[in-house]
Design brief:
This protein is α/β, with parallel strands linked by helices. It has two domains: 76 residues; 223 residues, no CATH class. The chain is 53% helix and 10% strand. It has nine helices and six strands. Strands 2-1-3-4-5-6 form a six-stranded parallel beta sheet, with helices on both faces. Helix 2 packs across helix 9, helix 3 packs parallel to helix 4 and helix 4 runs antiparallel to helix 5. The chain is globular, with a radius of gyration of 31 Å.
Length: 314
């Protein structure tokens, strides 16, 4: 008679045999898997080393290109803007980029008359009604605002009288500049409301460089970028030669340059640069100002929307 103990031992033996078989089989599989994984890891390691070497080479080439552009920049722009005056409008621009451009403008023979620094409040939709009301209230007697409702165009129309010198071309569409007292009142009012940073009033200029940063972020980013783009476009329509320049990302849908380039009627007269953080981008901005004096406009930089190449032809 087969005892219960015999059954227990038999079942245990069967399970033990199965376990040994599984272990032995798994050992063979795991060896093959480990070998395959090891080979793949070696291949990936080699690829990583290759990519790292290529990255280092590209970075070195970029540094060399930057050094070259910054070294030849002053010579490239020398004499291009002799006797011209340039006013700066900044909106989220990197101070390093601004300072480099001011230096290049000096090398070109231009005089920088000053800077109007816009604050983020200008592009804040929550404050749009306040800015609209303020532009109408600060408008001096005899001056006119554009027939528009967007804040960028209205602010550009108001600042045109502050920034732009009288145009020699009576058909340019510009209006006479404000008196110093009127211009002071405009900037003081905008600063008191937090739309511009306090600072000295720029003297009227023949050219305007609107300098921005990269792509904006947040739910209202595109709207805020549009304010800067339309402000630059209105300054251009008011009779000034205007270049809108931004850094990496500025040509995106939430960058001022990208918004401007999306409107053919804007870039027909306004020049844009999308890589002003680089040496060649800074040279491009100065050369583009020269082109504005000659009645030409273009879109320059390294993004896909830079339709006229990396740099303008002199």
């Amino acid at each position: 008679m087969i005892s219960l103990r015999y059954h227990v031992v038999s079942v245990a033996a069967v399970f033990l045999a199965l376990a040994i078989g599984v272990v032995l089989g798994a050992s063979g599989v795991s060896d093959r898997v480990l070998a395959a994984v090891s080979t793949k890891a070696d291949d990936l390691g080699a690829q990583v080393q290759t990519l790292a070497a290529e990255r280092d080479e590209l970075a070195a080439a970029q540094r060399a290109s930057e050094e070259f552009a910054r070294r030849i920049g002053p010579a490239a722009v020398s004499g291009l803007l002799v006797g011209q005056t340039v006013a700066l409008v900044t909106s989220g621009a990197d101070p390093t980029d601004r300072d480099a451009l001011v230096g290049l403008l000096g090398q070109s023979g231009a005089t920088v008359t000053g800077e109007v620094a816009l604050t983020p409040a200008v592009g804040d939709p929550a404050r749009a009604d306040q800015l609209r009301e303020l532009t109408a209230r600060l408008l001096p007697n005899g001056a006119q605002l554009p027939a528009a409702s967007d804040t960028g165009t209205l602010a550009g129309g108001l600042l045109g009288g502050v920034l732009l010198a009288p145009s020699a071309d009576p058909t340019s569409g510009g209006q006479p500049p404000l008196t110093p007292e009127q211009a002071d009142a405009v900037l003081t009012g905008l600063a008191a409301a937090g739309f511009v940073s306090p600072g000295d009033r720029p003297d009227p200029a023949t050219l305007v460089l609107v300098l921005t940063g990269g792509a904006l972020t947040g739910i209202d980013a595109a709207d805020a970028a549009a304010v800067t783009a339309r402000l630059a476009a209105e300054l251009d329509r008011a009779g000034g030669g205007v270049v809108l320049a931004g850094s990496t990302g500025s040509a995106d849908a939430t960058g001022a340059v990208g918004v401007a380039r999306a409107d053919p009627s804007v870039i027909a007269g306004l020049s844009t640069v999308d890589d002003v953080q680089t040496g060649h981008g800074q040279v491009s901005a100065v050369v583009a100002l020269r082109q504005q004096l000659d009645g030409r406009a273009g879109s320059y930089g390294t993004s896909a929307t830079a339709a006229d190449g990396v740099t303008p032809a002199t």
